[in-house]
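re: ur question from earlier - yeah i can do the single chain one, its not a big deal. heres the input i used so u can compare w yours
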Amino acid sequence: MDHLEELKEFARLHARGQGMAPDHAAGVLARIDNDTAGDPASWAAVWTAEGKVAAARGDLLDACRHYSLARFPYHADDDRALAQRLCVDTFDRWRKGQQGIERLEFKHPDGSFACWASGLDAPRPRPLLVVMGGIVSVKEQWAPLLPVLRKLGFAAVVTELPGVGENTLPYAPDSWRMLTFLMDRLQGRAAVDDTSMLALSFSGHLALRAAARDRRVCQVLTVGAPVSEFFADTDWWPQVPGITAETLRRLTGTATTAELRSLLPQFALTPQELHAVRIPVRYVASSRDEIIPAGEQDLLRRCAENARFKVFDDVHGSPAHLGAMRRWLFSSLLRRRLARRVCVTTGPGRSAGSPRTGRPTRGGVPS
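and the output i got, formated as tokens:
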């Protein structure tokens, strides 16, 4: 499959994941005949033009959907960089018409990153929910969920994987530290010692590694997360889509595919790390996943004592099962929230301990 056709194949799935009508996405893709920056019929130019049409009619979230696809899979050229800026600026315009969505910006020793947030409240800090996408999805795709998450009782923060969107941190084996950094910075405005991670695809890997080391992470919900085999199995790598490999090479700053492949085994989670993840892990898997090997589930089942799975007959991300997937993830999220409320209400005399106080101490994994 050549570059443009692979782009189109992935875009169909990501358009569906954002709720874009398949017929509309197909019509846009039919008008794209190249991926050359500056060409009016190029990938970024056509998607950006559609975004501007949506913005002109006042549908700012629809404009964001088109801009996010215009910068897909990453903003390496001028046209994609423009689409990236338009995506952020247009979402900013939309959120200013909503109630209680704020922008956060953080300076980190290795770079900077931004978040959209809702429900942060110093007088009455709520349980923290961090939402993060994978290697090709920007925070503006998930940020429209913020008003709902606030109503559900969370302090919700949506951000990006290192190297994606506005996040300028390098993607590296120790990138999980960004999550600890974020929790540290939100201390006092959210109940960070009760943090859930809704971390999709590659960010699920970060959340699992953080959970093995930081006791403030109390739950991980993920979809198609790599764990170990994706990074370390040399037999699996040749079938990884070219866009995935190229995006990882850019995010990690490696010069060649060979250099990338020599780095990736350092990302693999070990059984020791996974044994330290004693919190609830809820994992959506796809039986026809073209990116993540099925062996990742087997490793988690063996090593993570509280891992549960929902498997759909679908490709990576289960785009044809969005409704069922979201219901399962959100029911898992709220089930723990309700259980914690019951524990707090009844007190330790009526309970074996809340999910936080009754949790075993983790050991054996250096930070």
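The first strand starts at residue 101 and ends at 108. not sure if urs matches, ping me
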